[in-house]
Amino acid sequence: QVQLVESGGGLVQPGGSLRLSCVASGLTFNRFIMRWYRQAPGKERELVAFISSSGDITNYPDSVKGRFIISRDNAKNTVYLQMNSLKPEDTAVYYCNTETYRVYWGQGTQVIVSS
Q1: What's the pLDDT score for residue 3?
Q2: Rounded to whole angstroms, how far apart are CA atoms 111 and 113?
């Protein structure tokens, strides 16, 4: 059974940084792509980062490009999201995601950017 467990969220001031982690179990981690999404109150879930199975390809929407960095450690079955220069509009619940024959989601971790 595939499980994704996110951690690392919290309250941070504008301009600050956070690093989110997502530990995966129940799958051969290095065979699958990973993504980070976020969902703010009243808004649709939004893709914020993608990484290929080997980690050599990453992609970001313009809203976070240059501020967020996705990475993975296949030896630890973990994907990370380094978030820098955080803005109040980055406030959301952040989820990691992968696909095998179906899509899997973690439970999410809350990020609040506020002074």
Answers
A1: 97
A2: 7
| Residues 49 and 59: beta-carbon distance below 8 Å | yes
Phi, psi for residue 30 in degrees, rounded to 5 = -75, 5
What is the model's pLDDT at position 45?
97
Distance CA 94, CA 82 (A): 12
Express the helix, strand and coil content of the chain in percent, nearest 5 each. Answer: 5, 50, 45
At 33-70, the pLDDT tens digits run 999 999 999 999 999 999 999 999 999 999 999 999 99
Report the pLDDT averaged over residues 65-91.
98
> Three-class SS string for 55-81?
CCCEECCCCCCCCEEEEEECCCCEEEE
